[in-house]
What we know:
Elements: H1 22-25, E1 33-35, H2 42-58, H3 71-78, H4 85-95, E2 99-108, E3 111-120, E4 125-135, H5 144-154, E5 183-185, H6 193-219, H7 225-239, H8 255-260, H9 273-309, E6 312-314, H10 318-326
Helix pairs in contact: 2-5, 2-10, 6-9, 7-9
Amino acid sequence: MAGAVFLGTPMPVSARNAVSNAANLAPRAAAPTIVLTFEGPQELAGPLTGSTHRALTERGLAQADQADLPLVEFRMTMGCEGNVPTCLAEGGKTLGANSLVYGSVAVEGETAEVSVVLLDVGSAQVAGEVREEVPVSELQGSTDAVAERLVAQLLGEAPPPPPVAEAPQAPADTEPAPASSRLVWGRYQPVPAWKWAFLGTSAALLAGSVATAAATTAIIAPKGPLRDDLLQAAEDSLNDSKSSNDIDPNMDGDLCEAARAEPPGEPGKVTNAEVTKICNRGDALAKVATATWITTGIFAATTIAATTLLFVRKAPAEGARAFRFGGAAGPEGGFVTASFRF
C-alpha cells in the first residue's frame, strides 16, 4: 500500500484533535503511505518517527521496508518553499503515494510540543492533524506509547490505555550529541536510489527537449527545408496561368509579406495562398522552437539540481545514526522512510 511520508516541520503549539478518521483512510488501504522523519532534536524526533512508522505499519497503512529521505532534499527536489500542501502533494504524486505524513518535535524546557500531519496527496489537503504537549521524559525512553496515542488520534480511533509506569532508569553516562542541520558536500555511499531516478528522468527529458528544439530550428533555418519550399512555391507562381498571384523568389523584400498582401479590390484575400500557407507553417514552427528551447533551459536546470543532490546530504547526528541503523532496511526506490539523515 502507499507509504505514509513523515515530513518534518515545526508547527505552532495548540492542542487540537485530528480531523481525519479511519473511514476516510479505508478506500486508500491499497495504496502506499510514505513516512519521513520528524523535524526537531533527532535524539527525540528520530525514535518517535520510528515508533509512529511502526504504529502505522501495524495498521496496514505503511510499509515496514522504507528507504531514507530527508525533508530538505525532498523540498529542494520539488522546489517547495516551506511545507506547502500543494507542493508536497506534487512530490507525493511523483512517488506514486496516496498520502504523506510529516511532523515536528519542538522542546521548551521540560515539555516537547509534538505535531503530526496527514496529507492527502490526491486532493492536496490536510486530512488529519494532531498537536500535543508531551513531557520530554516520555520521549527519552521508549516512544511506542506516545506514538500509539498520536496515531490513534490521527486516525480517529479510541485512545490506547495508559501505559504501566516503569521503574526509573539510571541516567546514561554520556548524552547524545545534538543533531546537526548542517549540509555537507562530497561523494558518499550508498546514494539513495530516488536521487538516481530523479537524475535519470530529468536527463531523459532534457535530451528529448534538445532534440525537438534542434530539429524544429533546423526546419525553419535560413537554408532549411521550409525555406526551400517557400522559394519553390514562389517560383511556381511565376509559371502558372494566373499573373495576379505572382511572387518573385528573387525579390528584395519579404516573400511572406508580399504573399499575404490583399489584392486591389479583394479585401480579406491574399495575393498567393500557397506561399501564405508555407509562411503560416513557418510562424507556427518558430513558436514551437521558442517554447521548446525555453523548456530545454528548465530541464537543464532540473538536471543540474538533480546532479547536485548526488553530492549533498545532511550531516547526521550520532542519535540519528543509531536510530537509522536500528530501523528496518529501506527498499531501493522512491521517497520512503525510517529515521532521517541526508
